[in-house]
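Blinded run. Sample ID left blank on purpose so nobody reads anything into the name before looking at the predicted structure. Input follows.
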Amino acid sequence: MRARVVILGCGFGGLWAARALAKAPAEVIVVDRTNHHLFTPLLYQVATAGLSAPAIAAPIRHILANQRNTTVLLGDAKDIRVKEKQVELDHGARLSYDYLIVATGSAHSYFGNDAWAPYAPGLKTLDDAFEIRSRILLAFERAEREADAAKRAAWLTFVVVGAGATGVELAGTLAEIARHTLRGEFRRFDPRNARIVLVEGSERVLPPYPADLSEKARRQLERLGVTVWLGRRVTGVDADGVTLGAERLSAKTVIWAAGVASSPLGRSLGAPLDRAGRVKVEPDLSVPGYPEIFVAGDLAALEGVPGIAPAAKQMGRHAALNLMRTLSGKPRVPFRYRDYGQLATIGRNAAVAYFGRLKLSGYPAWVVWLVAHIYFLIGFRNRLMVMLDWGWAYWTFDRYARIVTKSSRS
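Blinded prediction complete.
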């Protein structure tokens, strides 16, 4: 009888694990709460109306259709019963497994201030992207209707909390929207007067990057018109703005990019967790005491492995390969992360990147960023759509995906 392998989550870790098991002598079941795999590095482009959702998402069933040993289930894993080797899904259904790969990723973290969430949405899913896009575009619409100068200024103030890669990309793109995309479209105000504020608690943007590249990123942001506030921590968020200690900033649009929390499923594994709630895995990516369970991606805590997409891909694939070694009676091998560098775009012709000792900034880094992201997209159609959209946007500054369905916003 073939072993049953259940994979929870079909992000980068889960998908790469499933693909690696295509020829495994096992029954593979992939469970995800959505029906699509999402290319999250470009999610901010959907949030800022640069790309439509189908350009960065693909149906999981379509991706795995040719894997005859793989079944895809739409469901939300609520609990893992490690003693019974069962996963509890929504609606009370239970799914038995012989081996389990948990790759359920992470969610937003407001550092214990969950009451801020309605006023400062984070960016993890397509729903998040649609919500943020709606708030951004409707803020300009409300500014056009507002006669009071102070109230209009609040609608035209956008605060991005957190200067990691997502925050930097959002802030830079918001500046381009205000300075270029919307120019000439409004009659009662000039969109170029919109204020984009990027707030970071540490002393530099892109903290994981080398200090010199962080400084170059900051300067590129400021050239785009972004106000960068470093060493300031948000102490309050409400419908009218943010509080930073004794300082108050009126802003109707706040976007949260300051922190993530690991999937709560990690707690059900009975394994030690780090401060961020990630599971401290063995070198082979298995859970201590439960060699039949592997953890990959953002949920796994392994020294020297960052929480980025390339690491999740490598971990997912490695977990699958160790599983197959077990099935064939071979010893497992420890995971070794290969650092291929990091990239962050800031705006048009502006980016930073490093690959070991090689550091790039400005236009060269931006070109590398474009090529890399197009290359790693799932499917030829997605790559073609993104290339066409980006080409059009580059020459015209237009962002055609500016459709919102909400007619008003309080």
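Unblinding after everyone has recorded impressions. The chain has a mean pLDDT of 93.
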